[in-house]
Specification:
By secondary structure, this protein is of the alpha/beta class. The protein has helices spanning 65-74, 102-116, 127-134, 155-182, 187-203; strands spanning 2-7, 18-23, 33-35, 50-56, 76-93, 137-147, 208-218. The chain has one domain: Rossmann fold, CATH 3.40.50. Helix 1 (65-74) packs across helix 3 and helix 4 (155-182) runs antiparallel to helix 5. It is globular and about 55 Å long. The protein has a 7-stranded mixed β-sheet, with helices on both faces. The relative contact order is 0.17.
């Protein structure tokens, strides 16, 4: 999901009114929000520039995230911000996983196949350096951890873990069939592996967590607009 915010200049010093453009699919649209279905890796064709661009959960989306970062830099006003929120892959484990873990087998194969396809899921840890390379300043990186399941001891961790487990199950269900079919797996093999992975995640047999990263940076305010 990519969100792009345009703040009207005449209201910068007042209570802000913003125009929001999202490259995403929804069924309900606020009055100050418009939606455009587009590919962020294609040339950006907006007629105006933006104050803030936010990208979340895009680690699986792009062949070259550096190209997207370059386009975002170009279409920010001087002083505008780009922010990423994403998960770092491969995931980690709170306890050593079983030697015969279906999840470990699954994530190993998936990461290998997306790498072969030119869409690696392992670039989030490089976002900060990519942003600095194109000219962003004041780049800040913040990391935290998020469990995939309600196995943390604290109540907040359990609640967040249940939500993140839902994310993981959606990834397993939605992306596995296409990726493994392209790798030559037959439909029945895929269904069996997906079922085993879901069982491990939901049954607590494996304690998976992601290191989550937030990165934001500013386009230099003194840079002249092109």
């Amino acid at each position: 999901m990519v969100q792009i915010y345009r703040q009207f200049s005449q209201q910068r010093k007042q209570k802000c009114s913003k125009k929001i453009v999202r490259a995403d699919l929804v069924t309900r649209v606020p009055l100050n929000c418009s939606f455009e279905i587009d590919d962020a890796e294609d040339p950006w064709l907006f007629s105006h520039k933006f104050d803030y661009i936010h990208a979340r959960g895009v680690v699986t989306c792009f062949k070259d995230i550096r190209q997207v970062i370059g386009s975002a830099f170009e279409f920010l006003v001087p002083g505008g911000y780009l922010e990423f929120k994403d998960g770092i892959f491969p995931p980690s484990y709170a306890e050593p996983p079983p030697a015969d873990s279906a999840f470990v087998k699954w994530i190993t194969i998936i990461l290998e196949e997306v790498e072969k396809a030119g869409r690696p899921w392992t670039k989030a840890k490089h976002y900060a350096n990519y942003m600095r390379d194109v000219g962003f300043v004041d780049v800040i990186e913040h990391k935290t951890t998020l469990a995939a399941g309600p196995w943390p001891e604290d109540e907040k961790g359990k609640k967040l873990g249940r939500w993140h487990l839902t994310n993981w199950l959606q990834v397993v269900d939605a992306l596995t069939p296409k990726i493994l079919a392209n790798a030559g797996w037959d439909e029945e093999e895929i269904k069996v592996l997906v079922a085993l992975v879901r069982s491990e995640l939901t049954g607590g047999k494996i304690k998976v967590y992601n290191e989550m990263i937030g990165v934001w940076g500013r386009k230099p305010p003194i840079m002249e607009d092109k």
